[in-house]
Amino acid sequence: MSTSPVRITVTGAAGNIGYSLLFRIASGSMLGDTPVELRLLEIPQAVKAAEGTAMELADGAFPLLRSVDVFDDADAAFDGTSIALLVGSMPRRDGMDRADLLEANGGIFAPQGRAIGEHAADDVRVLVVGNPANTNAAIARAAAPDVPGERFTAMMRLDHNRAIAQLAAKAGVGAGEVSRIHVWGNHSNTQVPDVDHGTIGGVPIRERIADDAWIDGEFTTTVATRGAAVIAARGASSAASAASAAVDHVRDWVLGTPEGDWTTAALPSEGHYGIPEGLVAGVPVISRGGRWEVVQGLELSELTRTRLAATVADLEAERDSVVRLGFVPSTS
Ligand code: NAD
Ligand code: LMR
Known about the structure:
single chain; alpha/beta; Rossmann fold; L-2-Hydroxyisocaproate Dehydrogenase, Chain A, domain 2; 2 domains; 6-stranded parallel sheet; 11 helices; 14 strands; 43% helix; globular; binds nicotinamide-adenine-dinucleotide; binds (2S)-2-hydroxybutanedioic acid; NAD; oxidoreductase; EC 1.1.1.37; Lactate/malate_DH_C
């Protein structure tokens, strides 16, 4: 394992996810026994709060944490960074429709993508968490044409983890027993959890659970609407579980996925499974040698194909809005 520090930039560092995520990174949960330099990017009004978080990070006396710096300038924050975690975004406000939301976020993710393209390290990997995460990743990618497109990913790992948790609870087993599931499409309520190739304790999931009505109905709806359910319960969107999923995504990307299993990441499509090129969509993936590879050749049921078409249509509608707004060229 390398001993030179890895530079990591986290945007929205003073927010709820940042408050959990930064400490997980500093503790070594994300990159194992590798020293890290943290760069925290915030809007000017939140810089003071981010400085407070930086003080607490110092007070954690984490052996792997080499430095913490706070910025309100994207060019400086992304300078030399190898891992960019784009968490800060514009939340939906009352009266905002999807186009308003996408326009506001284009104003954040296009400049940040540009700053990554111009200042980040050559090996930069980007994970977009801030919603609407898939399309924000497409916007950032379009603004950084010199960075390989595959380095811009969006987070569907929380959806993946939620699906595992529901299946494990239904079967009365630990989460580690569930393998080879994934979640297609958009991080929205059109997402499609797919268990058709999965196993629980080595037994095919549909055999082990033996309740297709639950799998195709309540399970799917519970996973796809879990974010809203957490908001209704907490009065704020999921934060620690989102941070944990971001840690899982980057750890697997850098260090590799476990042999014999796969996971979910939203990647710019290269046309696999009929998903139009350039849409950033959740797909089954493994990671080898620091690169995501789409798991190919899976047979999709009729129901999954229908649901996949709907979540792709959802992504296309978002893509069409940001094309109209000029954030993404119509060809990407
Ligand atoms: P939060 O409101 O607590 O924090 C967001 C932070 O981002 C704030 O501190 C804000 O000042 C900062 N910010 C806003 N614009 C910025 C900019 N241009 N540059 C840098 N920082 C900026 O929100 P949170 O709970 O931390 O959630 C962050 C985002 O993650 C939201 O969009 C939320 O919907 C999303 N989210 C995604 C998933 C997922 O699975 N993809 C899960 C949970 C939450
Ligand atoms: C989640 O899935 O928990 C979040 O994306 C919900 C949200 O709207 O912030």
